[in-house]
Amino acid sequence: MNVIKKSRISFSALAFLVVGLGVFMYTVYFQEEQLPVFNPTDFNPELVDGSLQAVSENHTVSDFELINQNGATITQADYENKVYVADFFFTRCPSICPIMTNNMEKLQQKFSEDEVVMLLSMSVTPELDSIPVLKEYADKYGAIASKWNITTGDKKHIYNLARQSYFAVVDEGDGGLQDFIHTPNFILVDRKKQIRGVYDGTKDQEIDRLIGDIEVLKRK
Questions:
Q1: pTM above 0.85, yes or no
Q2: Which residues on adjacent β-strands are paired with residue 87?
Q3: pLDDT tens across 108-148, in order?
Q4: How many domains does the chain fold into?
Q5: Is CB count within 10 Å lower at the N or C end of the chain?
Q6: Any binding-site annotation on 97?
Q7: Which residues are Cu cation-binding (predicted)?
Q8: 182 annotated as ligand-binding
């Protein structure tokens, strides 16, 4: 009799475990599926380079080559199989950039022990934001290079990334001397280089939403 009872208890525990695991896996999958994959046609056309406005599928972020606060070359390979947040800033910005950078610092603290999650900040005034300037800025905000690259590089390359890869800015331009972009957007990119969310990097509620979406993607 005791053996039968024990068997029933064991079977019930196993069934409960299987059902619970199934619910968990479904929830993770369902939540991940609820995060959209952004293609050019999903954005306001003003945000999208004219050559890409009709693209409705398979958009991925272009490969990049930048220089970080330590003078190291940073490429897409450093973000391979990572979930990351990208933004565009400049060190002399007196308005939204300090708020955005503080929020990037919060993300760094939140995911400091998570190797899957990284951050990428790109200067929109690379001619002014030299490596020593970026290093001072990075130190001010406690940026850890293995987690958060604060970068400079070729201006045209950075502006093409903003306009043709991340769709972070509305205005058009050629990346030349007089060209200038300024945006509060944080862009969430998944392991497949797909854009999965766009957030206002100056608003606390948007940062909370971003954190929740990162949690979903990193489990996938």
A1: no
A2: 121
A3: 999 999 999 999 999 999 999 999 999 999 999 999 999 99
A4: 2
A5: N
A6: yes
A7: 93, 97, 182
A8: yes
